Amino acid sequence: MEITTFSLMLLPYSLEYPHSAPIQCQPLPGIVFLYFKVYLFFCPGIIDNFLLINTTFSPFRQMEGQWQKNGVKFSYKDYMGNQRKADEAELKYAELQHSSLVGIIVFNTEFLIQETNPTASKILKRKSQDLKGKHFKDYLHQQYKNSFDSYLERIRKTKKRQDHAFQLRNEEGEDIYIMLESIPFLDEGNEIESIHSIIIDFTAQHLSNLKNQTKLIQLAVENMLDPFIILTAVRDDSDKIIDFIYTYVNKEAEKANKLKREDTIGKKLLDIFPTFRNGNMFNEFVKVAETGRPVIKEGVYMEFANKHQTIKGIFHTRINKLDNGIIVTYRDITENKNAEEKINSMMIELARSNRELDQFTHIVSHDLQEPLRVVSQFTRLLVEKNKGKLTPQSEEYASFILDGITRMNLLLVDLLKYARLTSMAKPFELTDLNKVVSDVLNDLTLQINDNKTEITVDPLPTIMAVPIQMRQLFQNLIGNAIKFKSETNSRIKVSAQKGTMNGVFR
After folding, report:
1. Mean pLDDT score of the chain, rounded to an integer?
2. CATH 1.10.287 describes domain 334-424
3. Higher pLDDT among residues 303 and 493, named by residue
4. Which H or E run contains 359?
5. Rounded to an integer, what distance in angstroms lies between the CA atom of residue 103 and that of residue 416?
6. How distant, in Å, are the alpha carbons of 184, 219, 318 from that of 136?
7. What is the mean pLDDT of the segment spanning 360-377?
8. What is the pTM of this model?
9. Strand 504-505 relative to strand 496-497, pairing
10. How would CATH label the architecture of 228-332?
11. CA distance 498 to 14
């Protein structure tokens, strides 16, 4: 076999490859070779490519004045074959990127644009060469720039895929809404080498959604229960607001202005209502349009007129800025205010009437006590002087008179107390309902007898209540029961049943 010399180049790293084929080459005399990696150039039988080989050299020994050639065996692997495959894969990726229907942008670690495919250039409506080297952030709307910084920081921190929606403006000044999905490519040290992003244009979908939302808003505004008006500012040469033009009015605004929409939109406010400038509200309109600060006016009386009518009333008004104008919503609360004033007037009158009634109740209850004392006193004298002479029935009648006087006196005392406590909460106290009902039945004795009503009372509890109110309650209940009883049933039963919280009376 013919021996061929070859050149060696040391490599600074070590890789192991499986053995593939033995080759014998010319050794160099007197040199001991160690184990290392080499590139082999132009060996016979091997194509003219770089070969990555794994080689072990044995030392040469001199025998009888001659160099003994032990030879060298080494294995090799075709490195350039793998490189061709990588090149082919890269070429296919470039072709796929170029023909992709989605936009693809390659960024460096600072998000400077390195490459864009035709679809991405079409979406951005800028040429690839104009985009290269530019920062993607420069094309974003101002309100998205902070969120983009956060987006880039997430990519650097996680080293994983991230996506986010952004709004930017193309070279023609059109707003574009995109979804940016970015995948970081890492090097052997697990550091970001480049960022490959897919850019998807969803402007049409966004505008369609926005259009639908606008329709819903218009529908809601059109059917509001309050007037809704959009006014655009009219300025003079010095940029001072001198009037407003009606841009939009809803149905309720038509009713409130008593003018049809076509007679309002496009017309100046002061042409329709010349006297509106005289009030303070015009100045408020100007202030909001100039400063952008919203204004709310509650319960403000306004009066303005045109040649056809005068509009006046009390209004609750809200003013907000919109571009070069304002939005005005208002509500006529004149009827509510009038009703409120009427109620306040009635409350004052009721308070006055209650004071007079309290005074009358106090006077009557106090003055009636004296005649009752006289009747009670003379009835007792009559019974004492005729003791032993009265029939049992007469004595019973006298007893009824004295009991009635006692109960009447108690009623007057309670009435007097009630008159004194009209301005305070009524005190609760332990109230024996058995005694209350017994007193009520005694007061209704004549009514019970005349209607031939049979009344039975079960044992009743003692509760915390206002005694006089309980007396009034049972007197009304039993009195109504007697009055509205059926012809076939003249029995009334008073009983109590323990409930979950309070007693239930039947």
Report:
1. 76
2. yes
3. 493
4. helix 334-385
5. 93
6. 16, 39, 42
7. 72
8. 0.39
9. antiparallel
10. 2-Layer Sandwich (3.30)
11. 97
Give the tokens for residue 502.
């309070």
Topology of domain 426-505, per CATH? Answer: Heat Shock Protein 90 (3.30.565)
- Beta bridge mates, 332: 315
Dist. CA 305–CA 52, nearest whole Å: 98
Nearby residues of 462 by Cβ (< 8 Å), 6 or more positions away: 430, 431, 432, 433
Q: Do the bridges between strand 454-457 and strand 491-494 make them parallel or antiparallel, or are there none, so unpaired? A: parallel
Instruction: Map tokens 């003692």 to a residue.
Output: 462
Q: Is the pLDDT of residue 226 over 70?
A: yes
d(CA 441, CA 400): 13
Q: Where in the chain is the domain with CATH 1.10.287?
A: 334-424
The strand pairing partners of 75, in sequence order, are 54
Bridge-partner residues for 135, per DSSP?
112
The C-alpha atoms of residue 56 and residue 96 are separated, in whole angstroms, by: 44
Residue 136 DSSP SS3:
helix
Residue ranges, CATH 3.30.450.20, the chain? 100-207, 228-332
Angle CA 349–351–353, to nearest 5: 70
CATH superfamily of 100-207: PAS domain (3.30.450.20)
pLDDT > 70: what percent of the chain?
74
Give CA 462 to chain center in angstroms.
52
Give CA–CA dist 63/192, Å, rounded. 59
What's the N-to-C CA distance of the chain in angstroms?
129
Structure confidence at residue 486 as a pLDDT band (50, 70, 90): confident
* Residue 367 φ/ψ, nearest 5 degrees: -75, -30
Q: Which of 50, 53, 54 is nearest to 80 (CA)?
A: 50
Please give the pLDDT value at position 428.
Answer: 82
Rounded (10°) CA dihedral 82, 84, 85, 86: 90
Polymer length of the chain: 506
What angle (nearest 5°) sits at the alpha carbon of residue 178, between those of residues 175 and 179? 165
To which H or E segment does residue 493 belong?
A: strand 491-494
